[in-house]
Amino acid sequence: MPNEQYLPPSAKRLKEARHSLWERARQVATAGFPWEYSHVVDRYFEERILETGAPNFTFALVAVGGYGRGKLCPGSDIDILLLFKRRIPAAAEQFVKDLLFPLWDLNLDLGHSVRTIGDCLSLAKKDFQVLASLLDARPLAGDAEVIETFREAFDRKVLQKKGRVFAASLREHNLMRARKYGDSTGLLEPELKNGLGGLRDGQQVFWLTRVMDSMGLPPVFLPEELSRLREDQAFVNRARTALHLSAKRKTDRLYFDLQPPTARMMGFAPQQATPDATGRSVEFFLSRLHQSMTHIKSMRETLFQEGFPQPLNTPPAITATNAKATASGISFKDHERVTATDVLDAFYDSAVTGLPLTWQARRLIRDNPGRFARQLIDRRETLDRLVNIFLCPQAGVACAGLLETRLLPAIFPEFSDVEHLIQFNDYHVHPVGRHTMETIRTLSEFINSGERWSAQMVSGLRRLDIPILGAFFHDLGKGESDHSRTGATIALETLQRYGLSKADAREVAFLVEHHLLLPEYATRRDLTDERVPTEVAELVVSRERLDMLYLLSVADSMATGPRAWNNWTRSLFTELYNKVRRLLEYGPLSKPEAARQLTTAREKVLALSKDLNPDFVKGALDAMPPRIFLAMDHTSIATHLPLVQRLWEAVAQDRIRKPSRIAGKGVNLIEARPAKVKGTYQLTIAALDQPGLFVTIAGALTLHGLNILAADLFTWKDGTAVDVFTVGEPPENLFADEVWARVSRSINYALVGKLDIASRLEDRRKSPLTKGRKGPKMAPIVKVDNDSSDFYSIIEIAATDKIGFLFDMARVLTKHGVSIHLAKITTIRGRAADIFHVRDTHGGKIVEEKRIEQITNDLLQAL
User: Fold this and answer.
1) pTM (predicted TM-score)
2) Are 798 and 832 in contact, with CB atoms under 8 Å apart?
3) Where does the pLDDT of residue 829 fall: very low under 50, low under 70, confident under 90, or very high at 90 and above?
4) Number of domains in the chain
5) What angle do CA 498, 458, 547 make, to 5 degrees?
6) Starting at the edge strand that comes first in sequence, how are the strands of the sheet with 138-142 ordered?
7) 326 and 197 in one domain?
8) What is the three-class DSSP state of 161?
9) 199 and 266 share a domain?
10) Residue 79: which residues within 8 A CB-CB, separation 6 or more?
């Protein structure tokens, strides 16, 4: 901290003003903060110049960049330019020191340059970052003639001559921004400044509007449209201000843990101090933020598309009678006589060609959505034409236009009710409206791509309108406790209102009601349990329904986000789909057929184990639990036999060397191989069965930075435990074999009492080197299900993730004498959802209400 007595009065006043401004902003981050802060800094420079005495040379002190725009956030740099007409006097250096040294003493981030007008013009022609900063130049003090001379020369010599090159440079820069920062209109943790849709997009609109004016080009936007852009920019800038204050540092990424305090500072305060109430307040904030950022991004894209269009080599054919294709997009020929039919025709051509409607065409629709909707609502022809749009190869382009122009919400009030609903979790990337359009776009790509897997399904569908309408309605029940059933009711009523037959409307409603069926069964149930595919098959009835449901479920999951769709979930979906399809095509196995299948599997394992002792192989096959032949292919099972043989040899050696109380306990062998799913490994761990074995293995894997995806546990009759874990790739910079060896040693030490895994995990949690797992805080949930499986109780646990989450849960279950047979673990970006298939110590389900309550309470306590 600077010594107060050495600060000049101007700096002391600046420090006090900043402190007062910060304190007020922490209560509610007002829209005026950026300008107020900028004004406070302006006043400092005015007062400081008076304190030091006006210099005896002609100059202009100019604010540039964000400071020039009057948009300073708490962590923003303060950038100034000391400008001279022709030459820089020697006394300028001391003048700059007098101005800036007190600010450095206050630990402010400064950027400064001292240049002549000629220097600025020369640099701006070569360095477009300099050009952009000068577009925001704002005079603070000095000679007005200097700044006027600069502005005139800057317009004439730089903007008029380099405007198109500058725009091309920004277009290229935006590609880099997309790669580095992502599209913030569709990110769970948006980047408020540089992400697409962030403040930089809005700045580009104003920069290029100024450039176009200097070049004599007609403006793209009306004054009122630019005013709306300023309002959206102001909201995002307020959010950035609140973010800096919440984080107590400069950051432009709105991380999950910073969303609640940021929302609170923005005035979106929860009514109650509960996770649910906090979540709702954040959802309102994020909904408003995403609306602003989507509009900002749309205006930036439009300005490039229409102000600096890229030439069309061959204009595509247009079927609409009142439309034409230009380099700027699809426009209406006669804007005075546009009908609702013309509008849908234009969107159809957009979906075919991939060209968006021009801003002028979209403006016409956006200003009159009700007028067009009145001609379209509740008409069968409207429904058919929208389906045709959704089925086109470039449906996503048209969907974005239908959403932006407000036409779709005007035609379907049911869509309007939930369009901007967003959920505070790390699961859903988009608000409902955009998610719906993304689902339609993805499903349309499946239909048009010609890829083998989707083409086979699509070719067997008699109607393509049914799944595409399912995609449109699948989330319109959001906001209700059972959104799938509510959505089905909405679909049934709405589609009949639009003239669809009751039978067809019921087919769509079926897809809507059950669009989560495959995801829930695939990720939560034991796919080796014959009851699981049987239940799905009994519900869907036909192969065609199964295919429609699968296409919709995959499109929905891909549009939802990375937590819903990744290599692992893809493999689970596919496994379930194939099992249900076989049931529908060939029927269930009879008992003799099932027995024959088990015998065949055993014979195949025998054939692959000829090099091993026949008596050992027969004994091992007899000792294996029958479920293993359903859960694993015969090739994998065959690899277990030599592993177990080596285990027993190692146990025998260990019993010779060690006292009986620990002899053999810590012995374990790990065999690792890349799994079928890219980026994962299958670890087969053999050890003697003993209490707490699964807990120990889970803890050891976590201790060494491995992400556990699933665990299948097989306990043999002879006391052998063969546990099969699916894990993510080892941490960077470590060889896989080295990691497996470390895990094995940790398991050994823990089982013989040399390593306290719980204590080590706690140390990791507390370590400042441990990177915190970002995710919204959520109320923990524990459910015990005794209906979904004939053999197991299914315990589902969902909560905010933490290091050792699985270890802690498994330890509670083990304490209660619960035997874990199967675990499915989902942990992405801060949220854990673990499913355990368990039995009690007698091999049955956990059915006593009192015991279920005790287990549930202890699990919640551990969370």
Assistant:
1) 0.81
2) yes
3) very low
4) 5
5) 85
6) 110-116, 78-84, 60-63, 138-142
7) no
8) helix
9) yes
10) 63, 64, 65, 66, 67, 68, 110, 111, 112, 133
